[in-house]
Amino acid sequence: MEKARPASLASSDTVRVTNPGGSSPFVLTCDHASNFLPAEFGTLGLAAEDLSRHIAWDPGALPVALRMAEALDATLVETRISRLVIDCNRPLDAPDLVPPVSETTAIPGNTGLSEKQRAARVALSWQPFHGAIEHIVEDRLARGQETRLVSVHSFTPVYKGRNRPWHIGIIHDDDRRLASPLIAALKRLAGVTVGVNEPYSPADRVYFTLERHARSRGLPCAMIEIRNDEIAGEAGQRKWADLLTGIFSDLEPEEAKGSRPSAVGKSVQSAS
Predict the structure, then answer these.
(1) What is the C-alpha separation between 255 and 260, in angstroms, rounded?
(2) CA–CA gap between residue 187 and residue 190 (Å, rounded)
(3) pTM of the predicted model, to two decimals?
(4) Could you give the angle at the alpha carbon of 58 between the alpha carbons of 68 and 13, nearest 5°?
(5) For every residue of 46-72, which 3-state class applies, written as one string?
(6) Which of 17, 146, 154, 160 could form a disulfide with 61 if both were Cys (CB 3.0 to 4.6 A apart)?
């Protein structure tokens, strides 16, 4: 687990913005960057080892995103509270906004919450995260700065007994301006298996941050999912960050094309 921070957190401590004045057209988000639980939540009734699992965060995603942000001179917005407290990549009416079950693990501390308790979690983490992205995007657009949003996630090699063969997946909806050239570049890499709307798709309700901040403004966007055994250590994190940085350095969105939504329905119990 990451090093503990003070138990009493102001909302400004629950989101971190790196390089807010970045010159790159890309704004990166890491929606599940941390497995940190403030002291008032205890362990949410889980065993300590559960808090290092994917159910609590996206292992490896933040180091990749940080290295990309530095190399590209991009802005990065990250959550600093575990997704178990509240999932910032979900709309406020989502049943798994405060997940009672993640994958197959029940979360005792998330059952029977009052509206006041839920609202407190929204104010603690969800609102600051989305408020920070909103401010950055609006400020960039007001300055006329080109803006493209990319969210960085990781996924488990096995989910509910199903092996996942993809090394990396790119998630998109019917706006493929960014996803199509990104997928094409990744498919040119030797030995890399690329998932297209795998292991998730927008139908799984995992596209919320991009829907809220990019799609609502007509901005190019895409979601990256890296299999977390690929980025479990520093060498893998560096490898994937450098590969993606090389691609993004030359990546230009395609012209908008009319196309039908490509997302297909999947289990809404998936966790991104």
Answers:
(1) 15
(2) 8
(3) 0.90
(4) 80
(5) CCHHHHHCCCCCCCCHHHHHHHHHHHH
(6) 154
**CB atoms closer than 10 angstroms to residue 256:** 11
Residue 122, SS3?
helix
Instruction: Give the alpha-carbon dihedral of 90, 91, 94, 99, to 10 degrees.
Output: 40
Which residues, in sequence order, are CB contacts of 173 under 8 Å at separation 6+?
202, 207, 211, 215, 261, 262, 263
Tally of CB atoms within 10 A around 258: 5
Distance between CA atoms of 266 and 202, rounded to whole angstroms? 9
Nearest Cα neighbor of 51 from 111, 121, 113, 107 is 107
Block residue for tokens 């009734």:
45
Report whether 169 contacts 156 (CB < 8 A): no
CA distance 131 to 150: 17
Surface-to-core class of residue 160, CB atoms within 10 Å of its CB (0-12 exposed, 13-18 middle, 19+ buried): exposed
